[in-house]
Amino acid sequence: MLKISSLNLNGIRAAHRRGFKDWIAQSNPDIICLQELRAMEHQVPGPIQSLNYHAFYHTAEKKGYSGVGILSREEPISVQDGIGVDWIDQEGRVIMAEYTDLTVFSIYAPSGTTGDARQELKMEFLDVFLPFAHQHLEGDKPVVFCGDFNICHRPIDIHNPKRNKNTSGFLPEERKWVSLLLDTGFEDVYRRLHEGEPDLYSWWSYRAASKERNKGWRIDYHMTSPELLDAAEEAVIEKDWDLSDHAPVTISYNLG
Question: What is its cofactor (predicted)?
């Protein structure tokens, strides 16, 4: 059984103070895909670096911003930073690790909540990412893109779809993009294992006791090739942990 977790940390140093190491010890994933490190590699807290994982980070050039990483028990065959587009790679948004049985990506899509300029960049990222993803879907190994896509796909994935219909993260063009990704071969594994179940979210605002009231958004995904959906046996959002404003999305795959 291969256990893969995806977690937006909202700062690895802050998550460390909130019990990140304790979560790793208890949940014990084989591979952990991290987003929003908000730190340079040398700023990652020492106890995290000393855990029994191979650690790889692709940080942003801007201090305290973005950044992705992959931690894994097995040493990867290869690791690749970036997507080949300068501004995306300078923001530290994509890292890939290839293993014997599969290829794993940690993805942090831009947020468009700060204004029109960032929303345009978000859509540009999605336009570039789609052919990049399909290039790997057609590769020799199963592939999983784990991460924070900053999009809720369907009304079931957001606590108040009517009020948020014009909000970045639930715009029609963003939701259409997720449908296109799925229509062309990818699987949203968590949703496929929890088809039709409401109130399943991975992010909650820090405002208005949103998590306690479960007023959340499901914006963190495992997007996989079809064979990994077939191999998926359990999918959980570990919302009991308060490591950040996101919860780990953890899926166990039987690759035997």
Answer: Mg(2+); Mn(2+)
